[in-house]
Specification:
The chain has two domains: about 5-115, RNA methyltransferase domain (HRMD) like (Transcription Regulator spoIIAA, 2-Layer Sandwich), CATH 3.30.750.80; about 135-334, Rossmann fold (3-Layer(aba) Sandwich), CATH 3.40.50. About 30% of the residues lie in helices and about 25% in strands. It is built from ten helices and 15 strands. The chain has helices spanning about 5-15, 20-25, 35-40, 65-80, 135-145, 160-165, 180-190, 205-215, 260-270, 290-300, and strands at about 30-35, 45-50, 55-60, 85-90, 110-115, 115-120, 150-155, 170-175, 200-205, 235-240, 245-250, 250-255, 270-280, 310, 330-334. A hairpin with a 2-residue loop joins strand 5 (about 110-115) and strand 6 (about 115-120).
């Protein structure tokens, strides 16, 4: 039996978002976090709307089929929307709990953000949804900055940032990620938005060797057998850096908490004069103040001191009532 306190907490969350949702809809956005359990009373639970899809995710304890159906019906009634519902318990990539949604719910759907179309599928070979909702403000910044700029999108996943850049006037949008399956979704997203030709491209590669080459730095690797796509050094006007918290590969480790410099320094070095890096940090233990100070120190040591650094606000559907949201997004201008 689903806890009535949880249903009440969901109702409170939906009421809290009323103004945000109205604004998003006016902007052509129909995807948002309905309930952010870690801050709103149910750690290990998140509920997201992606256009016609309602995605319920659990990390700690899975919902039974009946509880998932009850929660889905309650949310749909509160939102006043009929939605396809899928409940995923995050066991591992491509592995989910016992809830069996309808066939229609498991198909590809299209959601909207800022008038652009993005594909979403509740279950696929990976685990994460195809559009990260907490990065909305980062993509909004790209909408405002991309025109007539050469854009490099690192750890691109399904290219939400790259598609946004190309749709808003970027001269070129290069999207780098090791996962070809994710980039294929990004290419489909570009097609959905009538983005064609050389101004949008994807590169299936570890980001580290690509970034180091573009910055004019040598590529270090563990063994000769690891190949990488060759690039000549060149400047970019806008670099979007959204690394995972930690990952290990043949060209070195990504460690956002302890070694952000290995990523941010070459980003700064590949910038054209007056260029911008939008950098993210998802580690809750790193405060926004410390992250900003760290970025300034790295840029100073690289010989490209920052002229401006702005930390973007977090929308109300990802509340952090202690004032310290886990995701930090910094817009850095050299």
């Amino acid at each position: 039996m689903l806890d009535t306190d949880l249903l009440h907490a969901v109702d409170v969350a939906i009421l809290r978002r009323r103004g945000l949702v109205e604004r998003l809809l006016r902007e052509g956005t129909d995807c948002f976090r309905v309930f952010h359990g870690v801050a709103e009373g149910a750690p290990g639970l998140a509920i997201d709307r992606y256009g016609p899809l309602l995605l319920i995710q659990t990390w700690r304890a899975p919902l039974s089929h009946d509880d998932a159906e009850t929660l889905s019906a309650h949310v749909q009634q509160a939102l006043g929307l009929p939605l396809h519902c899928v409940a995923n318990h995050r066991i591992g990539p491509g592995k989910f709990g016992a809830h069996m949604p309808t066939e229609a719910a498991l198909q590809e759907h299209v959601c909207k953000e800022g008038g652009l179309s993005f594909l979403v599928q509740a279950r696929h070979r990976g685990q994460d949804p195809w559009l990260y909702l907490d990065l909305r403000q980062g993509r909004a910044a790209v909408r405002n900055l991309a025109k007539n700029r050469a854009v490099l999108n690192l750890f691109a996943y399904t290219c939400g940032v790259g598609v946004t850049a190309a749709a808003h006037g970027a001269l070129e949008s290069i999207n780098v990620d090791f996962a070809q399956t994710a980039l294929a979704v990004g290419q489909n997203n570009a097609e959905k938005n009538n983005i064609r030709g050389a101004r949008f491209s994807t590169v299936a590669s570890d980001c580290i060797p690509i970034l180091r080459q573009l910055a004019g730095k040598p590529v270090l690797r563990r063994g000769r057998e690891f190949r990488f796509v060759k690039f000549a050094p060149r400047p970019f006007d806008l670099v979007f850096l959204d690394p995972p918290r930690w990952a290990k590969g043949p060209f070195g480790a990504v460690d956002v908490a302890r070694d952000y410099a290995s990523l941010f320094k070459p980003c700064v070095l590949t910038l054209a004069e007056g260029g911008i890096v939008i950098a993210t940090n998802h580690v809750p233990e790193v405060s926004a103040t410390d992250f900003a100070s760290q970025l300034r120190r790295i840029a100073e040591k690289a010989g490209r001191p920052l002229k401006e650094l702005d930390l973007l606000p977090v929308d109300e559907d990802f509340p952090a009532f202690d004032g310290s949201p886990p995701l930090k997004v910094a817009v850095c201008r050299v």
